[in-house]
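Hey, resending since the last one bounced:
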Amino acid sequence: MSSVEIKKVDRHGRIVLPFEWRRKVLKDDDVLVIAYEDRVEVIPRTSSLADFINSVEIDAKNFEDYHRLRKELRARGQNEVR
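The structure tokens again:
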């Protein structure tokens, strides 16, 4: 169920979100704020970079030398369709 409230924007561009909305929807302190031509959306940030750390698989020979690994991955990337 959705709810609608009319809020004033103060001279600093701030609005206050109702406590119940923050507690129920914005469980984290961080949000994404997306500005479109006709509206602004506030979306809860539901993931962090830590969520993606183990989601990438790389077929590489040498992980000890960062510069060599980067060079190998870049060389392969130029041959792949993006």
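The radius of gyration is 21 Å.

Sorry for the duplicate.
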